[in-house]
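anyone seen this seq b4? input:
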Amino acid sequence: MRRLAEIMARLRTPETGCPWDLEQSFDTIVPYTIEEAHEVADAIARRAWDELPAELGDLAFQVVFHSRMAEEQGLFDLADVLKAVCDKMIARHPHVFGAESNAKSAAQQTLDWEKIKAAERAGRSERGTLDGVAMGLPALSRALKLQNRAARVGFDWESADDVLDKLVEEAKEVAEARDSLGPEELQEEYGDLMFVMVNLGRHMGLDPEACLRAANRKFTNRFAHIERRLAETGRRPADSSLEEMDALWNEARAMKMK
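predicted toks r here
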């Protein structure tokens, strides 16, 4: 980490550093930080263990980049970042680093973790139940966190069946909005439908973000199968018909391609 910090310092040194790196700010680097986090998740999902060290390194570089820019502005430095996370982990694990017994179930530890985080939020004057849920999270992940927070104070459906009923209701409202309302109203109703879909996944113990990533991967692999099969006859999807591509899609399904 020290070597990486030294490299970052060289890159940000005026006149002798890298012009691109010197032009960056917190705002311009944020998209890269998010992208690198997603690339870590992608490598794990693909079980690409040989790629994971490099992807984790890229993510670590983002931490160092932000820390260096903060140090230049007199805000904090990398040592402060690392101290903060060390202190947080120790404070949030009193059953490991403190006097509390570690004879707890994972479920109980999760409850205790949430109590500690709630106390931390209170110390930051975050009084509302939903305060502190990061705006920059992917929308599906943020919806899940918002719903989990609300559920902890009793604002929740009792079962997945209740959510399914709501899902049907929201789907009907989307259809009605499509036929009779404007684009803004349609966007709102579609958003409501997606929000309920996240809630359904939550009630079924599923991570919506992970489920959609898997669905994207499956679609990509199956469509690639269509392209490969068409290429065998010197054609591309644009040269084919929907019926033929649908048959090839079903071929990929029969192969249980994921």
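The chain has a mean pLDDT of 91. The chain has four domains: 2-91, 99-127, 128-206, 210-254. kinda curious what u guys think
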